[in-house]
Structure formats: structure tokens, C-alpha cells
Amino acid sequence: MSYAEIASKGPKQTAEEAAAPQPPQIDIEGVSSSDSTASLIDVDTPSVRTVPSDFGEQDVQTDTQAARIGREQDVEAAANKARAEADFAKKKAVRKARQADSWLTKQFETLGDGGSGAVVAANLVALVGLGGWLGYKAWGLYDHGRLSWKHAGLGLGVLGAVGAFESVLGRYLYKAKGKSQ
């Protein structure tokens, strides 16, 4: 038997019992609805004032306004000074980065054709050797059943870091070759 069938066989509720309960009422003694709204300000009355659109251009009339304007000017001057210092620091950092770039390019220019070829060959041997070693270690882990995504991700991270270093090194070699020709 279902719950509905069992409930239908029991005694019937009266209309009062079946009705939802009334929401609670707050009773404030001695206050009518007209008294509670009498103190509200009507926004349509002329007592509400607005600021004219040319308020900022009007003459200073009080000491408070003069102090506020002085503070605003001080804040603006400080902001301009901070912007100027930040621009100077940025230009200085760019200049130092260019000097370091130039120094590294000059070092590769002094290698000549034979030296740069040897650097390229050494990089190739190092990359192939690193790849072989990582592959050998991965095969050993796989053979023992311990190769996981963590190990594979670590190996790929090492290869990515070495690849990034190689690309930077190759860029300087390419720049040096371009200048020497």
C-alpha cells in the first residue's frame, strides 16, 4: 500500500485544520499608518536641492573648499611624480636589458664560424644525450611498473626548460651570425 492510500482511509481534516497558518502580524499600539509616513521626505518638493553642473568652476567661498582644493592638487602632484619615477625606472630597466643583450651577442660574435659550429654541435649532443637518458629512466620505471603521470610530467618539464634555454641560446647565435655577415 502507498502512503496516499493509507492517508485516504484515515479521518478527514476540517477546513480549518487543512488551511495554512496565518502569517504573524506586528501590532504597534497608538501608531497609525498615516503617522508613520508623515516624517518621510517627499522628493518632489522644492526643498530638495541639487548641485549645479558648473559647481567645480565656481569661486572658492570657504576655507574648507580651499583646503580640499589644496589637498587635491597635492595628490595630483604626487601622482604625477610617481608616474614620472615609474617611467624612468622602466626606461632604465629596458636600457639594462638591451646592454645585457648586446653583451651576449658580442660574445657570440667573437666565436667565429668554427666556435659557433662547435657550440651548435655541443647543444645537439647535449639535447640528444638528455633525451636518451630521460628515455632510459622512463623505460626503467615502466619496466618496474612505477611509471606515473607525475614522472612523465617531470620529464616533459625538464625537456621544456632545456628547450627554452636552447631557443634563447639559438636566438643569440642567430643574431651574432647575422651581424658578422
Automatic annotation (TrEMBL):
Annotated stretches, region: Disordered: 1-63
GO molecular function annotation: nascent polypeptide-associated complex binding
Keywords of this entry: Membrane, Transmembrane, Transmembrane helix
InterPro entries: OM14 (IPR039454)
GO BP: protein targeting to mitochondrion
Membrane-traversing stretches: 114-134, 154-174
PANTHER family listed in its UniProt record: MITOCHONDRIAL OUTER MEMBRANE PROTEIN OM14
Protein name in the entry: Mitochondrial outer membrane protein OM14 C-terminal domain-containing protein
One Gene Ontology cellular component: mitochondrial outer membrane
Domain of life: Eukaryota
